[in-house]
Amino acid sequence: MSVRIQEFPGTPLHDDDIRSGRVLSIPGSAGAEYSWDVGIAMERYLAELKNGRLVGLRCHHCGRVLLPPRAFCEQCFQPTSEWVTLSDTGVIQTFAICHIAWDARRIDQPKIPAVIAIDGASRNMGLLHLIGGVAPDRVAVGQRVRAAWRPAAERQGSITDILYFTPMEK
Ligand SMILES: [Zn+2]
Predict the structure, then answer these.
(1) What is the pLDDT of residues 134-156, one digit of tens each?
(2) All domains of the chain, ordered by start, with CATH?
(3) Would the N or C end of the chain have less CB density within 10 A of its end CB?
(4) How remote is the CA of residue 65 from the centroid of ligand 1, in Å?
């Protein structure tokens, strides 16, 4: 496929433009401030995490309970409006044992990221989180787990208000 350059008018940039500071040059501090709105569904989800609860939204068209909650069902293109309080328990669908951190640094205590099917949420709504409080060789797919919450006074309305999920039977 060929594209004629005339179809996309603009100003071509060259390396010299960047090096000479003709573009993208910000002397000193930009001092830019911003705020970010997470949206209606995520706002309540995060607030409920601070309260120590997991919540989802039900789609009235297909009946699925979406977790994390979304304002629209991506299958039906219908708005969701019925909040559902979910359990903080679930089943490990898959997991990995990681001996390196995100920056490729070796770590002494391995992390165990996992996808957890939360009880009450619909199929394929796996929540990505960590498994903890158990030796890595005792973790298994299909294992039932429960959220280990931060103390209430330390919660911030973040998914990290759950420290990790830990097996209900060890
Ligand atoms: Zn739906």
Answers:
(1) 999 999 999 999 999 999 999 99
(2) 40-167 (2.40.50.140)
(3) N
(4) 9
